[in-house]
Specification:
By secondary structure, the protein is mostly helical. It is built from six helices and two strands; from the N terminus they run E-E-H-H-H-H-H-H. It has a two-stranded antiparallel ribbon. Helix 1 packs antiparallel against helix 4 and helix 3 runs parallel beside helix 5. The longest helix is centred in the last third of the chain and has 26 residues. The chain starts with 16 loop residues before the first strand and ends with a helix. Its EC number is 2.5.1.-. Keywords: ATP-binding, Cobalamin biosynthesis, Nucleotide-binding, Transferase.
Length: 192
């Protein structure tokens, strides 16, 4: 890996460029920087979620995911380098299957609401989707390939955050949840 940061304010970005992990400089509005920023924002959003009361197994999973997202960011910052392990996608698949098995089947759309922790999980879900869109855009435009695992990881993670939001509403650790918050469809209400 490249040098560790010893100085934060280097002023080298004052010209509108930033350095990648391999030492090359790109404009700060480069798709790679957008993708990196979205992954960083997602990781930060998980940090906010981790500040909430959570079931211990969910907390442990989110900490692992934070480390994997950091690896993904490192991989995006060094074109052609692999840091995110292929097993990371499998781990998300297993977590999805585990947590989804405990939930009742959805019969209607749900709102991103309920307990504070569930709402924060929904925000993380939307940031994961944005990061995925940006990684897809980067892969389509950059000469250095973005591994499919990066896109797959973000896709699975957004699905997992949806499932975890439902789990967190049922955990009801703040006394404000207990179930999903269902969308009230005007069309369905007129039919009923």
């Amino acid at each position: 890996m490249a040098n560790r940061l010893t100085q934060i304010a280097t002023r080298t970005g004052d010209d509108g460029s930033t350095g990648l992990g391999d030492g090359t400089r790109v404009p700060k509005d480069h798709l790679r920087i957008h993708a990196l920023g979205d992954v960083d924002e997602l990781n930060s959003q998980l940090g906010v979620l981790l500040a909430e009361p959570l079931p211990e197994d969910v907390r442990e999973l989110l900490v692992v995911i934070q480390h994997e997202l950091f690896n993904l960011g490192g991989e995006l910052s060094i074109p052609g380098y692999t840091l995110l392990k292929d097993e990371a996608v499998l781990r998300l698949d297993e977590a999805l299957a585990h947590y989804n098995a405990t939930l009742p089947r959805l019969k209607e759309f749900i709102l991103p609401a309920g307990t504070r922790s569930a709402a924060l999980a929904h925000v993380a879900r939307t940031v994961a989707r944005r990061a995925e869109r940006m990684v897809v855009a980067l892969a389509a435009s950059d000469a250095v390939a973005v591994r499919p695992a990066a896109r797959q990881y973000l896709n699975r993670l957004s699905d997992l955050m949806f499932v975890l939001a439902r789990v967190l509403n049922r955990a009801n650790l703040d006394g404000l949840g207990g179930d999903d918050v269902y969308w009230k469809s005007e069309r369905l209400a007129r039919q009923g």
